[in-house]
């Protein structure tokens, strides 16, 4: 996950009138931390519960193809990590953190509730050489099977290794359709697609108000220099992972056992609990997250809320444009690829590719040699950060689809997990590994052996690549139905969780330490922009792992397994290669950082 808060805030709030050390404590910390811990836990419960379902919901309920589903998922998560830039600014300048958090919580909970209304499952059909045929779905003891209905005949659909499709009846081949001649489509309600996209837009906007400001409120509990601050944020981080672990286990289970609406409904209830903890605080949070000295008037606040609501249809249009984007024609090159990007992709990449060099040019003229070198180091690490989260965030898209299609999800024969529940492995391992990693770094630091920030980033990249290679290696033991054991997926998440702990806790802190003081806020924006770009690119990478489906079901599991393994192998090689490159660059980067640790 990429939700680690930072204990190093670029601007300390004035709380000289509060002395938390004189008040009752919670595990040695201000008692308000317990309420903020619970608030964040329930908010992450809702967010990650919904995220665990989204890709599966798109492919199994709306019957979108892999390319459309993973692209939409990438666009959604990109906006989720981009909107906090604006939400944090509005809270700092006009609303105050507490009001922003309340508004964001309400908007997100409504968005989750709206997702409960998905209408009937889309109806699949197929186009064979341009002619439409209805598709029937029948459940058997071995699972579901898809049939083409042709003049009263039911013809079983089977994908072949070469990409062609065979239609058979009573065990006899009726016809074989060459690769590309069989196109799977679905009749889905435009109204319910609109409802779903509006819900995603509401969550994206609401998250922008909630995410940056709940961490700001935690920071306000401590005076500048309070030695308990880092430990407080560590406890707060545990709330993030506890909430995500619980929701990623419960929401997917409810979606399978009861229906999609139940899974999304539970996420909405979690979000409402988060809102209630702030709204009904009984005065316990008085003085925390209050509006700035020159706060917006009541009328101005209403205008800000109305403006935020007006962004929802804008995001809806961005999602529509994203879904309509066609892949670049073969041989069109880099320019053709850029031209084929959705409007969202062009805006993200354009802002990042222009913003990074522009800030460096400004730093060259505005700062001294030392400051410029520190900014160069920060920008290099930001670029490698994009690579890390691009690969790590396959969890919600290609890895979830792999778990659904090519993984035996039985747990010792006692029970069977759902594909969405596999994402809970990450949160579980973070909870288990975080204290151990903290002790490891502390022990190495005492001996003067703690790795530098660039080395930790390099280790993270190598590790995320090794996680994919571990899964690829495990595929050697796939069973006759081309499914691997769930424990290989668990092993991947274990390695990825270790990698996350090497990069996530130090990223934001690194930005505050290396940035020129006058533009720390802007550099924070670039850091979150890099994560947003990574989320979008993660969706693009997942599209390369797209496989042929009919009515949400893969036509050939052997081809599916080979496709996923091919993509996972390729991205692991790139990750390890770039990680090793960063390890080599760590020596000059360390000099540029001028003692920053």
From TrEMBL:
<comment type="similarity">
    <text>Belongs to the major facilitator superfamily. Proton-dependent oligopeptide transporter (POT/PTR) (TC 2.A.17) family.</text>
</comment>
<dbReference type="InterPro" id="IPR000109">
    <property type="entry name" value="POT_fam"/>
</dbReference>
<keyword id="KW-0812">Transmembrane</keyword>
<feature type="transmembrane region" description="Helical">
    <location>
        <begin position="231"/>
        <end position="255"/>
    </location>
</feature>
<dbReference type="InterPro" id="IPR005279">
    <property type="entry name" value="Dipep/tripep_permease"/>
</dbReference>
<feature type="transmembrane region" description="Helical">
    <location>
        <begin position="457"/>
        <end position="475"/>
    </location>
</feature>
<dbReference type="InterPro" id="IPR018456">
    <property type="entry name" value="PTR2_symporter_CS"/>
</dbReference>
<protein>
    <submittedName>
        <fullName>POT family proton-dependent oligopeptide transporter</fullName>
    </submittedName>
</protein>
<feature type="transmembrane region" description="Helical">
    <location>
        <begin position="103"/>
        <end position="122"/>
    </location>
</feature>
<feature type="transmembrane region" description="Helical">
    <location>
        <begin position="45"/>
        <end position="64"/>
    </location>
</feature>
<feature type="transmembrane region" description="Helical">
    <location>
        <begin position="425"/>
        <end position="445"/>
    </location>
</feature>
<feature type="transmembrane region" description="Helical">
    <location>
        <begin position="261"/>
        <end position="281"/>
    </location>
</feature>
<feature type="transmembrane region" description="Helical">
    <location>
        <begin position="487"/>
        <end position="508"/>
    </location>
</feature>
<keyword id="KW-0653">Protein transport</keyword>
<keyword id="KW-0813">Transport</keyword>
<keyword id="KW-0571">Peptide transport</keyword>
<feature type="transmembrane region" description="Helical">
    <location>
        <begin position="191"/>
        <end position="210"/>
    </location>
</feature>
<feature type="transmembrane region" description="Helical">
    <location>
        <begin position="70"/>
        <end position="91"/>
    </location>
</feature>
<dbReference type="Pfam" id="PF00854">
    <property type="entry name" value="PTR2"/>
</dbReference>
<dbReference type="GO" id="GO:1904680">
    <property type="term" value="F:peptide transmembrane transporter activity"/>
</dbReference>
<feature type="transmembrane region" description="Helical">
    <location>
        <begin position="564"/>
        <end position="587"/>
    </location>
</feature>
<dbReference type="InterPro" id="IPR036259">
    <property type="entry name" value="MFS_trans_sf"/>
</dbReference>
<dbReference type="GO" id="GO:0006857">
    <property type="term" value="P:oligopeptide transport"/>
</dbReference>
<feature type="transmembrane region" description="Helical">
    <location>
        <begin position="374"/>
        <end position="392"/>
    </location>
</feature>
<keyword id="KW-1003">Cell membrane</keyword>
<dbReference type="GO" id="GO:0005886">
    <property type="term" value="C:plasma membrane"/>
</dbReference>
<dbReference type="InterPro" id="IPR050171">
    <property type="entry name" value="MFS_Transporters"/>
</dbReference>
<feature type="transmembrane region" description="Helical">
    <location>
        <begin position="302"/>
        <end position="322"/>
    </location>
</feature>
<keyword id="KW-1133">Transmembrane helix</keyword>
<feature type="region of interest" description="Disordered">
    <location>
        <begin position="1"/>
        <end position="22"/>
    </location>
</feature>
<keyword id="KW-0472">Membrane</keyword>
<feature type="transmembrane region" description="Helical">
    <location>
        <begin position="520"/>
        <end position="544"/>
    </location>
</feature>
<feature type="transmembrane region" description="Helical">
    <location>
        <begin position="334"/>
        <end position="362"/>
    </location>
</feature>
């Amino acid at each position: 996950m990429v939700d680690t808060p930072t204990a190093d805030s670029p601007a300390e709030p004035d709380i000289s009138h509060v002395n938390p050390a004189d008040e009752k404590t919670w595990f040695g910390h201000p008692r308000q931390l317990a309420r903020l811990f619970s608030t964040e836990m329930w908010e992450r419960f809702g967010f990650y519960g919904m995220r665990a379902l989204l890709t599966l919901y798109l492919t199994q309920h709306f019957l979108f193809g892999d390319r459309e589903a993973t692209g939409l998922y990438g666009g959604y998560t990109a906006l989720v990590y981009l909107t906090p830039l604006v939400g944090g600014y509005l809270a700092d300048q006009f609303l105050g953190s507490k009001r922003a958090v309340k508004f964001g919580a309400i908007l997100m909970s409504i968005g989750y509730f709206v997702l409960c209304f998905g209408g009937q499952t889309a109806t699949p059909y197929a186009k064979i050489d341009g002619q439409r045929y209805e598709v029937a779905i029948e459940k058997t003891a071995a699972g579901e099977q898809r049939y083409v209905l042709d003049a009263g005949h039911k013809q079983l659909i089977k994908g072949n290794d070469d990409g062609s499709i065979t239609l058979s009846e009573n065990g006899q081949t009726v016809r074989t359709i060459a690769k590309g001649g069989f196109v799977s489509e679905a009749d889905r309600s435009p109204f319910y697609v609109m409802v779903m996209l509006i819900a995603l837009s509401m969550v994206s906007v609401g998250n922008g108000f909630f995410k940056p400001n709940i961490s700001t409120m935690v920071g306000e509990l401590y005076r500048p220099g309070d030695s308990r601050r880092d430990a407080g944020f560590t406890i707060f981080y545990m709330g993030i992972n506890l909430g995500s672990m619980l929701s990623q286990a419960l929401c997917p289970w409810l979606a399978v056992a009861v229906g999609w609406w139940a899974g999304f409904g539970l996420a909405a209830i979690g979000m409402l609990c988060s809102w209630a903890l702030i709204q009904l605080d009984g005065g316990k949070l008085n003085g925390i997250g209050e509006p700035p000295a020159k706060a917006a008037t009541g009328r101005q606040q209403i205008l800000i809320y109305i403006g935020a609501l007006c962004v929802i249809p804008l995001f809806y249009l961005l999602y529509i444009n994203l879904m309509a984007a066609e892949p670049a024609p073969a041989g069109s090159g880099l320019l053709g690829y850029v031209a084929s990007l959705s409007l969202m992709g062009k805006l993200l990449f354009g802002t990042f590719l222009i913003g990074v060099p522009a800030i460096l040019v400004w730093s060259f003229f505005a700062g001294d040699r030392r400051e410029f070198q520190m900014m160069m180091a920060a920008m290099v690490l930001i670029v490698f950060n994009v690579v890390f989260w691009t690969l790590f965030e396959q969890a919600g898209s290609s890895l979830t689809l792999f778990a659904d299609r090519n993984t035996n999800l039985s747990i010792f024969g006692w029970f069977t997990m759902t594909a969405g529940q596999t994402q809970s492995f990450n949160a579980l391992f973070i909870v288990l590994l975080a204290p151990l990693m903290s002790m490891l770094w502390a022990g190495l630091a005492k001996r003067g052996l703690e790795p530098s920030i660039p080395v930790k980033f390099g280790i993270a990249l190598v590790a995320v690549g090794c996680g994919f290679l571990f899964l690829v290696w495990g595929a050697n033991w796939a069973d006759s139905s081309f499914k691997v054991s769930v424990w290989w997926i668990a092993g991947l998440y274990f390695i990825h969780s270790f990698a996350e702990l090497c990069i996530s806790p130090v990223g934001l802190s690194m930005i505050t330490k290396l940035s020129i003081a006058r533009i720390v806020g802007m550099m924070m924006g670039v850091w979150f922009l890099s994560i947003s770009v990574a989320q979008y690119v993660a969706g693009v990478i997942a599209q390369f792992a797209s496989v042929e489906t009919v009515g949400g079901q893969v036509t050939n599991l052997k081809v599916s397994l080979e496709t996923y393994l091919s993509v996972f192998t390729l991205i692991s090689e790139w990750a390890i290669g770039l990680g090793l490159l960063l390890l080599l660059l760590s020596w000059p980067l360390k000099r540029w950082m001028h003692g920053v640790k």
